[in-house]
Each structure stands twice: as structure tokens, then as C-alpha cells.
Amino acid sequence: MRLTGCGTALATPFRNGKVDFEAYRRLVKRQVDAGIHFLVPLGSTAETPCLEDDEKVELLRITRELCPDRPVVAGVGTNSPAATIRNIRLLEGCGPDAWLVVVPYYNKPTQQGIFEYFTAITASTDKGIVAYNVPGRTGTNMTAETALRVAGIPGVIAVKEASGNLAQIERIVKERPGGFSVLSGNDDQTFPVMEFGGEGVISVVSNVAPGLMVEMVEAAAAGDFGKARELDARLAPLYDACFVESNPIPAKAALSILGYCEPDMRLPLTTAVPSTFDTMRGIIEDLGI
Question: In the CATH hierarchy, which fold is given to the domain comprising 5-226?
Fold first, then answer.
């Protein structure tokens, strides 16, 4: 399997402290109806560290049920190989196509440690692995050299690159092995990453504007960079607004304005402040969502 296009890092809706599974169904159906290319439940946007095992299972089961005809990449990564493998065992019966595995956080591993971690995780499963580099959350950057080594591990199919370092990402694109996908992990870098040969994005913004993100990514993939650049410029205020507070606080505020779910979060995250709601209302109106 090769991942391409726009994949949404799905938010998890809550109501009165509990997962709102009916709202989640609405969110997934909206994504599918908008033509999203693949879905990514149980990532950081899903507030996964604060989900119970039975909640993770049900969220993934619903995603697979409502998205039977395109890839589903489930987040399972932790900072412990044993815990990550336990997540894989917990969720493998729910039908995901691949696993999203973050670079281990908090431990501050060496580059060799990162490589050996992905080697161990890949050996534990017959499904593809998407390595996720997000030093802003993990405290450790997986360098281009290490990413290219990881890309050579059989079973690692892609990298979600959220380092923010375009030179690093471009090197990975240029030197990667055949069939390996490079996906932007930052919405505001999707266009430049695709312009120099990347395959797409795992997106937060597509929770709010799935149709526009799909249109932008499809234009870039077709080589219509003029159209893609126009759409990218239109979406730029939303890129910024989705990160005025910690993700997914602003995205949940926007989804609540649109009527899809409550803006509720689980601690340690808290509901958006009034100015975030105001910003999102203006952007939603401007984009005609």
C-alpha cells in the first residue's frame, strides 16, 4: 500500500466527559462524503493519551465501518516498544490498513535508538508503518539520515514529517527508496512539500474544511500548482487558526460552530477561549464552509 493525498487526523468528540460516538459517526461520514483519501484515527488530534482501551477499539471499529473503501491508518505509538506493540495487539482486529507510530517522546532517544525502535515495531506486525516525526511534541527530531534508514526497513511505508524543516523534508523526498511516501505533518507546509515531490498530508485542517483540502491536494498531485497555490492561500488563515491554541482545541471549536460536535476536551486540554471561537466563526464564513 502507498499512502497518497489528504488524510484527516480525526478529532474525538466528547459530551459530558464521555466519547460521543454518534457525533464521531457524523464526523467520519462527512470526511468520506468530502472525498478524503484516507483517515487517521487515534493520533494526537484524537487526544489518544486520554482515551481508554475500549474507547480506542470502538472509534477504530466505527472508522473502518464507515470507511470501507480507502485506507485507515490507526495511531498506536508510545515511548515504549512494549506499550506500542500492546496497542497494535489491541487494535489489529478492527481492520486498520497501517499503523501511525510516533518517534518516542520524553525518553529523548538517540538516532540509533529511533532506528532500532522502528525496527522492533515493524517486526511485530504484518501491516505497514507510518513513522511520525514531530519534534515539537516529542522533544527529539528524527534527522533526514535516520528517516532514510527507517525508510529502508521492510514494512515502513511512509513518514509523516512535522519537523517544520523544509530542507530536511526535501532531502528525504529526493533520497527515499521507491514506493515510500513522504506526507507533510503540517498543514501550512503541504503545498511546498508536494511541490518538491511529496505525496500529500496528514491534516488537522481537513477536520474543518475537508473538501477544500482535498481539492488543494488533488490539484498539487495533478501538477496544477497554480490552482493549488490559490487554494493554499485561501486556506492559510485556517491553517493559522487551527493552532492558536494547542491542537485540537481550535479544530473542535470550529466543528462545534458547524454543528458536528461539542467543543469539549479532556484534561489536561481545555475548551477554546472566546477569541478562538470568534476567529473560527469569521474564517468559516469567509471560506463558505
Answer: TIM Barrel (3.20.20)
